[in-house]
TrEMBL record:
Belongs to the peptidase S46 family. InterPro entries: Pep_S46 (IPR019500), Peptidase_S1_PA (IPR009003), Peptidase_S1_PA_chymotrypsin (IPR043504). Keywords: Aminopeptidase, Hydrolase, Protease, Serine protease, Signal. Residues 1-17 form the signal peptide. This is Dipeptidyl-peptidase. The keyword Thylakoid does not apply. The keyword Signal applies. Its EC number is 3.4.14.-. Catalyzes the removal of dipeptides from the N-terminus of oligopeptides. It comes from the Bacteria. SUPFAM superfamilies: Trypsin-like serine proteases.
Amino acid sequence: MKKTLLLLCLVAAPAFAGEGKWTPQQVLELSPAWLKAQGLKLPPNKLWDPKRGTGLLAGTVNTGGCSGSFISATGLIITNHHCAFGIIQEHSSPQRDLITGGFLAKAGAEELPGKGSRVQVPRAFTDVTAKINAAVPPGADDLARYKAVDRKQKELVAECEKRPATRCQVATFDGGVNYTLVDAVELQDVRLVYAPPRAVGEYGGEEDNWSWPRHTGDFAIIRAYTAPDGSSAAYSEKNVPYKAEFFFPLSTQGVKPGDFVMVLGYPGMTYRTLLADEMAERQARYYPRIRDVLGEAISLLEAAGEKDPAGKIAVASQLKSLHNVYKNAGGQLAGMRRGQLVEKQRAAEDAVVGWAQKGGAKWSDALKARDALLTEQQASAKTFERDFLLGVSGRLAQGPALATRVARLSMERAKPDLERRPEYMDRELPRIKDSLERAQKNLFPAADKALLHAFVKRAQALRPDERIQAVDTHFGKSYVEKDVTAKIDALYANTKVLTQAERMKMAGETPAQLTARKDPLLAFGMDLAKDQAALDEVRDRRQGAASRLRPAWRAAVMAQAGKPIAPDANSTLRVSFGKVQGYTPRDGAVYLPQTTLTGMLQKHTGEEPFNAPPKLRATAEAKKFGPWVDPRLKDVPVDFLSDADTTGGNSGSPTVNGKGELVGVNFDRVWENVANDFGYNPDVARNVNVDVRYLLWNLDQVEDADALLRELNVRKGSPVVKEAR
Ligand code: ASP
């Protein structure tokens, strides 16, 4: 963060208390008096000490797409059930169905290793903006600019990763306002310790997803291991639990309405710094297309699953993720309309323009930059439909997606490491191989063929100036149903891409070797990879333009605001501050901020997704609350709301009180708040957390997990917690 910004931060507090996903550095720049007034009981440097890379934030880990946190000095990590689903699924079989039954390791030796599961523990954040900008040669055009920035980022990462077990990344904030080198320790041996049955972890399923009131026990406990000397190591029987210097003790007191909370974690992506026109396109085209294309895919997968029980299991995870994105897109659209977010952004933008115009020459570059960004936007809009379809294809038919991935890997590996696309560099190979291997569990050719058919039909309907070449080459330019069906049948009948061992071999072959295989699905994938590579190059140039233009425009926005603004989420570590509170979802209705075990029972129908497991139900019906009853609610609290500013990726984030004790785990947002990715609205900005007391009640009263409770420093009957470190 630049000096000028820093000064701004010290003199002013954020616009709304809950607004902002603050970077660790920004937390230290926010007014300590303001933080204290919010409810922070620790000195801000207990959250993060940048010199030593220590503090509570060092206990907040990235689990790859989700967040998690250490809850013991012995490497125990809490995250969401839906974030640990991969490990649970990996160890589930019809004979031992951990998805349905849940899992509890009674001793360390029983813990289940997760293939490819890793967690990253943050160590340092270094501002490298000046280094990145200096790497751009004078007079570079936008593509050259992109390439120079990309190369410098890779060099910084390579240098940073010279230390063992280190995972680094140069994160771009707001299109290039700031570049930060993120340095983390990667722990490679992660094992499942506890997962509740799916009927608890996903109670309410899709029906309750993205909404409130909620009664979901979306938690799971995993543990990180290291070599006996403490260094990060791949799975080995000799490994020992990771010694976490920083962790969040569990608060057995929980929360009540009005309490201060912080949500720490790795929010994925938000779009609040987009121009109004850029936002408008997401509302007018992007989310409607998600609804359309993914909605169709969901129907096709469900229909195929109906006819084949094994197929139904295979597509379960793809279907779950499609549903999540599909419903999210509905929430984005509803929230954008209801909150008039584009209109608000336009008004805010107009205000900055008016202000900058009055500022004369000082801001003329900012205004020009905004105009140029708009021109870029209009240019990219011309091929929106093709680009969208190509972009989303990886989520649709898995056969072509795997073929494309293998082909792209082979094309990229022909280049020197630093010239490849970042996701195909050598450092990514173990991850790529894991995912190519794991994909086998999710394959169901009958469903896949239907998805490919729908994709081809859509591609063939594209305008002549936005064609997908691979589709034209392999399927012809116009749609004839029986021809497409016959062609797809032939692709699937004669391919080895869907055979795990062959696919793994392909992952190590050159493009010439892949071509020589004369595998028709692979040939289609290779051509699709070329379409994607061409689109990537166009996008690279656009990103080069954005990195030139957006910082100039954002400088005007920030100067006009006169108060600290947190950057858009970009999967880096952030902190949000909030209060436990309910909200008014619509005229005449008020939602309370907490739900209870009794409320969970009331929802029980005996059928999915409201089918509480018998033991849990019996314990709840007998009102065996143990010490986990909330004195106000006279019941065990299940979930609670706060107005902390979160998004996707914050799943599994520790929700902690002012002393740094864990009071819950974030897992979702309410329906009215899905569109907060485009703007924070304090009236409806609510994130959904599972109350730590629901976890403790489950461990204590339902699972009899005494050893685990002891390890968590919670004594049955009389809860005791240690001081936060
Ligand atoms: N459910 C989301 C996730 O999985 C969290 C959110 O979007 O609020 O990351």
